[in-house]
UniProtKB/TrEMBL annotation:
This is Preprotein translocase subunit YajC. It is a single-pass membrane protein. Belongs to the YajC family. PANTHER family: SEC TRANSLOCON ACCESSORY COMPLEX SUBUNIT YAJC. SMART domains: YajC. Residues 101-130 are annotated as: Disordered. One of its GO terms (biological process) is protein transport.
């Protein structure tokens, strides 16, 4: 056997290995998604529509998805791309910085594009080095 044939066989074996590995990973991710899909879950479809699952028909592979109050659509179960995890809101005790202030309350220069009222500036304009 010449070395070129041996290298080509090794590359082919590596490609087959990674193809099977990727397939198993996708199957595992799909099974995890299916386990998370229950009535009441907030989901996003493959085409970007958000809604709440009302019911799942296992035999017909259909999902009743409420996209707005009173608006229910029937979708194929595999069009659900992901389950939206609820986000935790920041506590209301945290200080909110005003425009031009950092979190310690110290006035900073405005960011590019920020508007600052003329009455808020107590400083005299700086003279140039002309």
């Amino acid at each position: 056997m010449d070395p070129l044939t041996l290298v080509m066989l090794v590359v082919l074996a590596a490609l087959v290995f990674f193809m099977f590995r990727n397939s198993r990973k996708r199957q595992k991710d799909q099974a995890a998604l299916q386990a998370q899909m229950v009535a009441g879950a907030e989901v996003m479809t493959n085409f970007g529509m958000y809604g709440t699952i009302l019911s799942i028909d296992e035999e017909a592979n259909k999902v009743a998805l409420e996209i707005a109050p009173g608006t229910v659509v029937q979708l194929h179960r595999q069009t659900i791309a992901r389950v939206i995890e609820p986000t935790v809101a920041e506590s209301e005790d945290a200080p909110v910085a005003e425009i031009g202030q950092d979190t310690a309350g110290v006035m900073n220069e405005p960011e590019f594009g920020q508007r600052v009222a003329d009455a808020d500036t107590d400083e005299e304009p700086k003279k140039g080095d002309a």
